[in-house]
Amino acid sequence: MTITITGFESSPDRGQGLARDMRVRWALEEVGQPYEVRLLSFAQMKEPAHLTLHPFGQIPTYEEGDLALFESGAIILHIAERYPGLLPGDANARARAIMWMFAALNTLEPPILEYQNLVLFERDKPWHDERLPAVKDRVRDRLGPLSCWMESKEWLEGTFSAGDLMMVHALQRLRRSGLLAEFPNLAAYIARAEARPAFQRAFAAQLAVFTASQGG
Ligand code: GTB
Questions:
Q1: Which CATH number covers residue 157?
Q2: What is the pTM of this model?
Q3: Are 182 and 140 within 8 A, CB to CB?
Q4: For 107-150, what is each residue's pLDDT tens digit?
Q5: Residue 57's domain is classified under what CATH number?
Q6: Are residues 112 and 58 in the same domain?
Q7: Which of 8, 13, 20 for mutating ligand 1's site (highest number of atoms within 8 Å of CB)?
């Protein structure tokens, strides 16, 4: 059955792989499933055809036969449960890998998004400079314990899982923040994940979309 996902026709991050279709591409590459991508403009995302798939008019979505999904967490969990490669077989180990997916989405990503929204979209606000240190500290409050957890570990729970994929994709948004330099083992964790062939293939595919959108 053909898998079709949606992505930005022209990603605002200029192909850095920060938009959430990247995590879906990466998961599909990890499990070795081919997929097609329907590219959407910002206007198309808000049109009825797309809103039937995604009520909030966003990317990514996932279609496979009769199944249509939105929310990157739900999509990654579906891929990981349907195809081998992203979740361990042992029931307890599987539950812990899924726990880390939720930790990435619910505990790490919110302060990272708060930081990113502040520096990207609120730079000209009168309260930006005053607010920035507290927002950065809230990110540090999450990176510190994660860094301790990762002490001497290659992956969150021994072997690479959907939990690592989700965690690394959330952390990548901090690439330009300077915050990762304070936690060298997290920077090394991200680099390990980015060296995976599946990540490289997914990254190259989304970058090619952006390059083509620029006429390259
Ligand atoms: N909770 C949803 C999920 O996990 O799937 C959130 C989906 C979401 O935020 N989608 C964004 C979107 O469609 C793209 S990923 N936005 C368009 C809109 O809301 O109209 C967020 C994103 C966008 C851009 C960058 N960037 O340029 O760096 C990074 C991440």
A1: 1.20.1050.10
A2: 0.97
A3: yes
A4: 999 999 999 999 999 999 999 999 999 999 999 999 999 999 99
A5: 3.40.30.10
A6: no
A7: 20
